[in-house]
Design brief:
With 231 residues, the chain is of the alpha/beta class. It folds into 2 domains: 3-123, Rossmann fold; 134-229, Winged helix-like DNA-binding domain superfamily/Winged helix DNA-binding domain (Arc Repressor Mutant, subunit A), CATH 1.10.10.10. Helix content is 39%, strand content 22%. It contains 8 helices and 12 strands. The strands form 3 sheets. Strands 2-1-3-4-5 form a 5-stranded parallel sheet, with helices on both faces. A 4-stranded antiparallel sheet has the order 6-7-8-9, with helices on one face. It has a 3-stranded antiparallel sheet with strand order 10-12-11. Helix 1 (11-23) packs across helix 5 (105-123) and helix 2 (34-41) runs parallel beside helix 3 (60-68). The chain is elongated, with a radius of gyration of 20 Å. The chain starts with a strand and ends with a strand.
């Protein structure tokens, strides 16, 4: 799943952008100021950034200029100002596109898709080359081709069912699954066994991927319901 970075200090606008993009299959992170957004963008995890001009601390023009010195990631700039001079300045600093507020969320999604597709064509990236078979969540990496799991670069050995359970939860973040649902999905409807094995497997997985069992980063328990992977 490709990730989009939204650098926007207006929470309602940022959440609107996030909702529309996530409906269309993207994962989104939000930064509410320019410095935080710049730091996040430079990690290299994002397929595209949506950048507001009026930001606290460091404005969008400076963020754009700094990013263009470090990365060729597509950038879409947003502004409430309709002056051509801002558009010219943004594009001159290296932004790939410029939209004025208020804007159509569906048009924003269409432009995001277009710029990512264009970038992939120009760079020769395929989904496989872009690492679509390696799922990365913070310090956790799941290599789906080799069925290997790494935490902060260190490989963790996982039997088949532990791996299958972890992968299923990680590919469906922020959704709550009951033990019955997980048992049916991983072991199969016709399998014999006790759903209590889910709790055992979750505990074993946590022992391997969590660095602090008192502050879980990945699989959380939803009491009385089941488990949820924190995306």
């Amino acid at each position: 799943m490709q990730k989009i970075l939204i650098i926007e200090d207006d929470k309602s606008i940022a959440e609107l952008e996030r909702d529309y993009l996530e409906i269309n299959g993207y994962k989104c992170d939000i930064a509410e100021d320019g410095k935080t957004g710049l730091d996040m963008a430079l990690r290299g995890e994002y397929a595209l950034a949506i950048l507001d001009i009026m930001l606290p601390g460091m404005d969008g023009f400076e963020v754009c200029a700094r990013l263009r010195n470090e990365t060729d990631m597509p950038l879409i700039m947003l502004s409430a100002k309709k002056d051509d001079i801002d558009k010219v300045r943004g594009l001159g600093l290296g932004a790939d596109d410029y939209m004025t507020k208020p804007f159509s969320p569906n048009e924003l999604v269409a432009r995001v898709k277009s710029h990512i597709a264009r970038y992939d064509r120009l760079t020769g990236h395929t989904k496989e080359e872009a690492g679509s078979n390696i799922l990365k969540i913070r310090g956790l990496e799941i290599d789906k081709d080799s069925r290997r799991v790494f935490v902060n670069g260190e490989e963790k050995s996982m039997p088949q069912k532990e791996y299958d359970l972890l992968l299923f939860l990680a590919e469906n973040p922020n959704r709550v699954f009951s033990k019955d649902q997980l048992f049916d999905k991983i072991w199969g409807f016709d399998a014999f066994g006790d759903i209590s094995t889910i709790a055992v497997h979750v505990r074993r997985i946590r022992e391997k991927i969590e660095t602090d069992m008192d502050n879980l980063q990945y699989i959380e328990t939803v009491w009385g319901v089941g488990y949820r992977f924190k995306g």
